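Methods — Computational structure assignment.
A single polypeptide chain was analysed. Its primary sequence is given first, followed by the predicted tertiary structure written as structure tokens.
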Amino acid sequence: MRRNSIRWRLMLAGAVAILITLTLSAVGLSFLFERHVERVAVNDLAARALTLAGMVENDADGVPHLTDPPPDRLYRQPYSGHYWQVSLGNEERRSRSLWDYRLTPPKDPIPPGQRRVLALPGPQDERLIVLEQGLLVNANGQPLPLRILVATDRTAMQEAKRDFVTELLPFLGVLCALLLTAFWAQIRVGLQPLSEVSDRVLALTAGDRKRIGTDLPDEVVPLSQQIDQLLDQRDAELTRARHRAADLAHGFKTPLQALLGDAEKLRVQAQTTVADSIETVVGSMRQLVDRELTRARIQSDRNSAEAKPDLVINRVIKVLKRTPTGADIQWDISGDPDLRARIDPDDLTEALGALLENAMRHARTRVTTTVARHGRHAVITIRDDGPGVPETALKHLTQRGVRLDESGEGQGIGLAIVTDVVDAADGQISFANADPGLSVEVKLHAK
């Protein structure tokens, strides 16, 4: 997929957005899970704190004191990660799990009836989450503060979070794959109208359509309308240019004819040299005028035109056989009679007429023509058995843009018109020595 492809850019942007979203989701979910686990742990510690409050009993004199705690293995194993510490006035009791370690909460006491969550170091420098519960106990009518600290190691919470993330990642990977697949399908469906426009442009090039049309999704219609307007403007401009060229060429014909009349008058006056010079110049100018008239007749709308090369060849050869030179030539014709080329029939007649006439003029006894389909092209080959063309001149003939009538090899202005016709039809023409003779290959788009 190319870097400047819209599909590649959308897919890359979508993939980056999905990966960022899933990464943020994983971070957010792990944070929420950690908060949830911590909330559960705090609630459990609050319940244990209220249980430890039952350690307070009054003696026979009604003085409250701390008794033995409820039995719990977690608090009897040294450094088990579960600890408690209860202070009643100046009396303090700690869980066996603390061993000789004492929790050091903030010095400011918590108000009675409230609780707070603390982060304190443990006996082995582990991180503890500690719930501090403040209560008041009645001591013969006097309030006695009761401070309960219940702690648990955060390691278990961190392990739970790590296990949660580990189990979450495969699901996020599957979700990422599903989202990428869905996004790819969305891009494919969303860009399908652009593929339709591309297909219609190819149909325009192949001559299967005259315009793109507006039977497309609303978002693509402005583009298709602009392209159709450009095509309309191009055809209109080509038509105007063709008319201007024809008018200009016709405008030259009358002055040239007048010059020929003047040359004839000079010849009558025995000024033969001047008359010959004028006629030579007028002849060259008339060739150029005839060429421009032919070029002006070349059709601008190539897409809807079609011609049968085999039929055109037979029609041109039938005319050439009526000439003295053509009557002495053996014409070999072969090819597909149903093959159609994307070119105006009159333009093809103009081009093949010049090529066949040139082959007839240089042939000794035989001219061979073939018409065949090569892929999407109709290939017309014309070969004579004459002397051919020098290799140095042949290289110039195959160069694009070189005017064949300027090659100096006697092909004349007709072959230059052939080049114009083939170029206008978006075709190709090539020359090669056939030993003997010259072989000309014209390649046009097949219908």
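Note: The chain has ten helices and twelve strands.
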